[in-house]
Write a structure and sequence with these properties.
By secondary structure, the chain is of the alpha/beta class. The protein has one domain: 3-Layer(aba) Sandwich (Rossmann fold). It is 40% helix and 20% strand. The strands form two sheets. It has a five-stranded parallel β-sheet with strand order 5-4-1-6-7, sandwiched between helices. A two-stranded antiparallel ribbon has the order 2-3. Helix 4 links the parallel strand 4 and strand 5.
Amino acid sequence: MEVEECMMKAVLVFIDGTICDDRHRLHLYGTPHFNKDENILNDTAVIGSVECLNELHKQFNIIYIGARFEQMKEITLKWIIKTGFPNGEVYLSEKQEDRLEIAKALSKKYNIVAGIGDRWDDNELHLQIGCMSIILEEYKGNWNTVRKYLLN
């Protein structure tokens, strides 16, 4: 069974800016209100991201990763489900080094074929674990690019 798990194909997807448009609450950054559950639940999906990830989910496990406090995992998962994204594992850490360690551990469990992000440090993480790196414009991802490289 473990060998089979190692062979599962997965796509690593960053949350904020890539699939989550949190701009309505950016003015609250640095205050306790920024991470309030009701504010997070009012975030919207980046246009095209829900549809594309549901298409990808037919062939790949979806793994969500984000630069959020670990304590935000439950509300993040609730937002993912509420917004219509496919079910998947969620990993959070505010520190880039920790996200890299998480990704390295996941790459031992899954065949991570690609990472999708919106920042150059996302690209760095993808390169460190040896997967294809797809960097989309923040909040405006061209999800047809993702389809082109992962579904064709």
